[in-house]
Write a structure and sequence with these properties.
- The structure is a single chain.
- The protein is α/β, with parallel strands linked by helices and 203 residues long.
- It has seven helices and seven strands.
- Strands 3-2-1-4-5-7-6 form a seven-stranded mixed sheet.
- The longest helix has 18 residues, at 146-163.
- GO terms for molecular function: S-adenosylmethionine-dependent methyltransferase activity.
């Protein structure tokens, strides 16, 4: 799916993403992933700001990045509602750049499925995260169950055309292709949902 078409798609889906802020299962995972973060946090693909309710607002300043104008408008409203210190950048991750060691923590939730070069994006996370910082990923991807994984691979071309993202990416394999070090993994929904606690490489 061409980038411009994908952006228009996300612009039109903002109400759906706002509704998903209240999904109780996702809320539980978001809270678990984000509750202990502190300092300057980069959230790439912030969408409608579903994570903003779950940061410890006394301890963080969030830089939220997205390529959808409508998503960022919604995220700004969410930040105001939850009284989270935040700033927002209308940027595509492919062209996004920061100085090395710019952030204490980097967060990505349900975004690695849509990047053309997810390993390159993860490499940027490693570069931007400070030594001793944390990288948190909540992603969907390839199941470890053989029948499900076979089905995901089979339907992925159609899934990509319809939704704009892939359903058969092995998130752990992607991370392991970078210098990021995984500290802890939890998997749910027949292993199709990945929660990853990681840290940047020694630089």
């Amino acid at each position: 799916m061409q980038k411009e078409k994908l952006i228009r798609k996300y612009d039109k889906q903002v109400k759906l993403y706002e509704k998903n802020r209240h999904n109780p299962t996702l809320a539980k995972w978001r809270r678990e992933m984000l509750k202990d973060l502190h300092g300057n946090v980069l959230e790439v693909g912030i969408g409608a700001g579903a994570n903003l309710a779950y940061y410890n607002k006394q301890n963080v300043h969030v830089t939220g990045v997205d390529f959808s104008v409508e998503m960022l408008k919604s995220a700004k409203k969410a930040a105001d509602y939850h009284n989270v210190s935040a700033e927002f950048l209308l940027k595509d991750v492919d062209t996004l750049d920061f100085e090395p060691d710019s952030f204490d923590c980097i967060v990505s939730t349900l975004t690695l499925c849509s990047y053309q070069e997810p390993v390159r994006v993860l490499g940027k996370f490693n570069k931007w995260c400070k030594q001793g910082g944390s990288i948190r990923l909540l992603e969907h991807g390839l199941s470890s169950h053989s029948f499900l994984s076979f089905s995901q691979k089979l339907i992925d071309p159609l899934f990509k055309r319809v939704s704009g993202c892939h359903c058969d990416r092995d998130i752990i394999q992607l991370v392991n292709k970078t210098d990021i070090s995984i500290e802890h993994i939890e998997r749910y929904w027949t292993d199709m949902v990945y929660l990853v606690w990681a840290k940047p490489s020694i630089k």
